[in-house]
Write a structure and sequence with these properties.
Elements: H1 9-16, H2 24-30, E1 44-47, E2 50-57, E3 62-66, E4 71-74, E5 80-83, E6 88-92
Antiparallel strand pairs: 1-2, 2-3, 3-6, 4-5
Length: 106
């Protein structure tokens, strides 16, 4: 049996190169100069008249958390109890047309 030889360093360098020198004009077309989504992580938005916080954004969804209202009720012994539920997490489109409250206008 023969052991496989590693390709020469010049051949390895050509394999790792992702840019074809004959098609440099296409590199200009595919470069994105601005952020592709409307929402960004850390944005504070208004959704259903409630304040929400954008946790992360990827190409298919923006993960948003929204605080739930405090629940106030009385026990059987007439003691008032306040209960703060955990925030609701949901996903919306990263290109949603929701008002962004904490970003400065250009």
């Amino acid at each position: 049996m023969k052991a496989r030889k590693r390709p020469s360093s010049s051949l390895r360098r050509k394999q790792l190169s992702l840019i074809d020198p004959n098609q440099l004009e296409f590199g200009i077309i595919w470069q994105l100069y601005e952020y592709p989504f409307r929402l960004r992580a850390g944005d504070v938005i208004r959704f259903n008249d409630r304040l929400c916080y954008v946790v992360r954004v990827n190409d298919c969804a923006a993960v948003v958390i929204m605080n739930r209202p405090v629940r106030v009720f009385k026990t059987r012994f007439d003691k008032p109890v306040r209960f703060q539920p955990s925030p609701a997490m949901f996903r919306i489109s990263p290109a949603s047309e929701v008002p962004i409250l904490n970003r400065k206008a250009k």
